């Protein structure tokens, strides 16, 4: 089925470098497919090192002018970008759903979510205040000034193709940085459309550049940026192994890094929880985007006293989820992003069952719908030996584990190298603060399943990375501090 947009020119299939759309060189293209059908939607450039360097040349040339542009001017351009993104919410939502697979309502929701970051950082652009420091000796004036770090390379994942771009590019531009971006190979079209709208909003040539590449050629593009001392910062969302690789490879040029990596979020239901609310929270946190969210609960711990009732309520909700393509208005769970993703989910479920877990609902692929569909699944009797407890499943699988004491469940929740998000449900105020303090994660949800917001700091600890996106901290990551000291004249 062709993709029909009210603005067909938003479906871009070229790199954008120095303010120009630059098509793929002959024989160097990457097919973008619909995960619901496997059908090809479009072809974009399969770029290499030369394209990557050209993007840095453009970003470096544009940096001097962009950093000196008044903050208010940068803010106005970002505000116009926000307005254009919202004005084209339907088209962008369709693009997201088609290339990424999430239901259209979620695609539209992601556009609004992405815009909320652009709007927030448009406002923050004018608030990158420095400090006047009281001098320790007479006659001196001492200042801490905030300056943009320089050219930023943004490498983004496929699970939120609009929001991840907005969360990185908006603060970079607000701070006065220029950007080179490589979107995920599965979902380049949304990123290209966002860049087209940024250009339309008045982002000057060279300030924002994007190159697309296949998974095979991505290392060539990113290595060119890692080796280039003009690139002063890498901002990355994706898997922990790639994040660690970027950290190691950034050492020679000492780039600043923001790494939003994998998670293994615990979701704890205490015996004093409101069970209906806990089920609702888990449905939101676990099954949004088909479970392909880095803050997704990966392990669900339920107190023995309420376990069976909770499982019963949860299974009723999960079994009723409508699975289907984004094009069906009723779909609540779409296809997984690709065959690698479905294989991992299937492997985790089979491993759990082989080690003693019980399938309460789901548990299999749904071949009648297509190759990339997996049934929303609830497992019981999961334990720490199972792959689904140690690795991020990144799919619609909720493994339940019974526990009997607070100390025991905190130890289990923290027994992972990851530390992105954690959730728990309880009505005991003393326990609430005890548990929130004890959880080793960057984000904690208490009686709440939907946590991300543009005004809140999003990021992890341990193997989930460092740096924060959103909030005042999200701008700081793109600034450095210059100390200026003036002596007596
Ligand atoms: P990934 O880390 O492989 O890909 C993310 C980005 O990194 C993409 O743009 C990709 O092209 C790029 N990349 C891949 N290999 C690279 C390399 N050697 N050098 C530089 N860049 C490289 O993640 P994925 O394949 O999309 O998903 C795998 C797993 O990562 C998921 O199962 C999940 O656990 C995790 N993940 C986490 C998030 C998150 O939001 N934190 C998002 C997507 C995936």
Characterization of the model:
- With about 500 residues, the chain is an alpha/beta fold.
- It folds into 2 domains: about 10-260 and about 465-485, 3-Layer(aba) Sandwich (Aldehyde Dehydrogenase, Chain A, domain 1), CATH 3.40.605; about 265-445, Aldehyde Dehydrogenase, Chain A, domain 2, CATH 3.40.309.10.
- The chain contains 15 helices and 22 strands.
- The strands form 6 sheets. It has a 7-stranded mixed beta sheet, with helices on both faces. A 6-stranded mixed beta sheet has the order 9-8-7-10-11-21, sandwiched between helices.
- Helix 14 (about 430-440) links the parallel strand 18 (about 420-425) and strand 19 (about 445).
- The radius of gyration is 23 Å and the shape is globular.
- The site of nicotinamide-adenine-dinucleotide (NAD) has 23 residues, from helix 7 and helix 8.
- Nicotinamide-adenine-dinucleotide binds near residues 156, 158, 185, 260 and 294.
Summary of the model, kept short:
This protein is of the alpha/beta class and 489 residues long. The protein has helices at 49-68, 71-87, 89-100, 104-124, 163-175, 188-201, 218-226, 240-249, 275-287, 307-319, 339-354, 387-390, 406-414, 429-438, 471-476, and strands at residues 15-17, 20-22, 29-33, 40-45, 131-133, 141-148, 151-155, 178-182, 208-210, 231-237, 256-260, 265-269, 297-303, 358-361, 377-380, 397-403, 418-419, 421-425, 443-446, 461-462, 465-466, 479-486.
